[in-house]
Amino acid sequence: MPISAKHRRPKSSTIARGVAAVGAGGAVIALPLLGATGAHAAEQAAPAAHSAAAPAAPVAKKQSETRTYSVVAGDYLSKIAADNKVEGGWEKLYQDNREVIGGNPSLIHPGMKLTLGGPAAATGTTPAAPAPVVTKPAPAQSSSSGYVAPVPGKHTTNYRASGANWSSGSHTGIDFPVSTGTSVKAITSGTVVTAGWGGAYGNEVVVKHADGHYSQYGHLSALSVSVGQTLSTGQQIGLSGATGNVTGPHLHFEVRTGPAYGSDIDPVAFLASHGISV
Q: Which CATH number goes with the domain that contains 188?
């Protein structure tokens, strides 16, 4: 009997250790039936089970603190994004501030507060990527007289059209219905006298030409020139857009006898006199 007792005690102890090990590893169903072999498997499995329950890897570093930027005259999203090193460029800047800017990324104005580097505004939607251009616009006209059209295509709103849309009661230029981002050209050589925010005109450029006339380009989304710069015929002065007081993207174009508002003349007749039909 003592021999039998000695024999039963190790067996019972082995199973007990097996159950204890399995219980620590969290798998208590099958191992009591396996005896010593099951206990050994439990001891091997325990580290794996513990590893699976280990804390997750440290989370990524917290996003940099949100900064606030106040729009100033002459600003546009790509310029703000570049100057402030916004990751994701103007598209991310627009996404983060869509509730403030609205549906048109070109329509920003001085005093508007934008967040830089913060989480995207909760609008429920992400701005869709621009649709690919399927057709190319017709090239801008040029003539042997040294003049070109400011953008491709024909104008829509006529010079001196009347209506409540204009503070003077009538249209002081002509409009070209081009999409945001269309290259805008200097109609002939000259010197830039204005390049920046122009109130209702949004971002504008005014160029003085050798014959004493001035050309004005309004509602631009981006400027490519600065005051005092000398331009050649057809040189890009900026990109069309919808800044200022507008109902949609287009180029507002004027010809003037002076640099300021109110000195406009018929731009269609002026261009026609130089071989350009718009």
A: 2.70.70.10
